[in-house]
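Incident log, structure service

09:12 report received: a user says their structure output differs between two submissions of the same chain.
09:20 pulled the input from the user's history:
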Amino acid sequence: MSGHFADVAARPIADHDGAPLLERAGALVRLTLNRPEQHNRLDPLDVDAMTALFAQLTQEHTNDPSSVRALLITGTGSRTFSSGYTLQAIIDELDSRFERMLDTLETLPFATVALLNGSVYGGATDLALCCDIRIGTPGLKMFMPAARFGLHYYAGGLRRYVSRLGLAASSKLMLTAMTIESDEMLRIGFLTELVDTDALPDLVERYLDQVLGNEPVVVAQMKRHLQLLAQQQIDDPQVRALRAAMDAACEASLRSPELRRRLAARLSS
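09:34 re-ran on a clean worker, output below:
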């Protein structure tokens, strides 16, 4: 992509293989998931590095709101934005780190854009939902296979699905594990915009230009208040108790032999 990042060199955010790539162009940041042959999956080291990066960007913004104005997240290649957390890590290392990383992304005090360079699956659908704006092109697909694996999805992800997409769409995606495509992704609000591939670079640049023209302190305040308003109808003592029940169900599913059997079968196929 040309434009703001045309002359910017990318560097890994950590020293392990396949670490996401970081580019800085003034107050704009681009993070590129970087395992194209493995559908840009995320492993625990990526999650740790992304959490550290988001904390660093938040601190920079706190010190000087004009220093970081927008984060663009995309993937390498044209096939897959991301397939989410690696299956082996779900078996061996799925703890609260992944949810904490996404909660941090969701609450970053500046605009975030998910540029879907390809299809999106599993936990990566929640990563995209954490972003304020999601842009895609025709031919994309998405699905959420948690129920197929026997995994009760974590509470933060369920909240984002319902608050962003509504109960009907969330029920279809979570309870059936059905695949949907670009037009439906746009209709249910998963995509903010759906544009032809040729028009994508100009559209992204337009978004970034608009963000750069806004007052960063006001953007941070309004983003926080919009999120609070979206959660208002579910932020009460009864739902906080439900959160504990959801956490317990998620933990129980992680210990389930059925989850391990299903994931092992998928890994060996």
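09:41 both user submissions now match this output. Likely a transient worker issue. Closing.
09:42 reviewer note: The radius of gyration is 18 Å. The chain is about 50% helix and 15% strand.
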